[in-house]
Amino acid sequence: MEETSIKRDIRRLKLEELKAFFVQQGEKPFRAQQAYDWLWIKSAKSFDQMTNLSLETREMMKNHFVINHIKVDKMQRSADGTIKNAVTLHDGLVVESVLIPTEKRITACVSSQVGCSLACKFCATAKLKRQRNLSPDEIYDQVVAIKEQAELFYGRPLTNIVFMGMGEPLLNYANVTEAISKITNQKGLGMATKRITVSTVGVAKMIMKMADDGVKFNLAVSLHAAINKTRSSIMPINETNSLEELGQALAYWYQKTKSKVTYEYVVWKGINDTLEHAEALLKFCKIIPSKVNLIEYNPIDDGEFQQASDESLNMYMDLLERNGITTRIRKSRGKDIDAACGQLANKG
Prior knowledge:
Number of domains: 2
Order of helices and strands: HEHHHEEEEEEEHEHEHEHHEHEHE
Distance between the termini: 25 Å
Structural class: alpha/beta
Strand content: 15-25%
Number of strands: 14
CATH class of the largest domain: Alpha Beta
């Protein structure tokens, strides 16, 4: 363990750095390109897999570097086909990722942090202490693992990626965007950026930074209430990023990107299931072009939050649709294995 801790993870090197290192070791630069392709296109987990490099070259890499690859330690399969992975990182910490199959797509739901610091009251992950950010490679590895499972268990390719697992992606922005760059690069997984959605609880200044950076992926906001008092009571982030600030950031986002936003919204009994709340959501939806996912609530055992009635859901649906807001009720998947939205908590 001591030896690996002083070796650098080879995947932290950019291609030019790797080429410079290879030349320094008396190797040809194209050998570095071969190693790089093994790491990112073929997702090699060890240097021994790099069979078009000589034994001496592989030993040289082993002497200087490690590949801190994730390990899927536990895999659970739901009755509806959802697969939840317990992913062990190189330092022994664990996160969870989920494969969600539907008729037309297979989606990878990935984590961006170990735990979370935002304390949303309805989310199991929020009960865990945030321990650290995931590196770009650890995010990339989650996607690769789910891509392999999609092909193995479903004989179909991975089609979509959502950053809706453990953690707040915008509080690990640099690593998340670097991972997305690798995932979408033709020298990586070659996935289309428009197939990737990053979900945030609404960190206003980071939404504006994304707009300035001209990102091409989709944005979803975990909203759940469009009245400040209610939102602050269930999502402490709202105390420092009010709905007014969030609305301004989203207006800036749309002005820069011309991209719609999706609002993720759970309707709970006795919390936000009234016409007043539905009308507040409708008003918020009119700030920029948007659509709404009304999400079925997934209990996290303490009973404080309960799914609203079908009547309340339909009231929301009717009001929004009648006013031109595309709305759908999203049924949760993987509830029987605690793999649904808000349930990821490393229970195992």
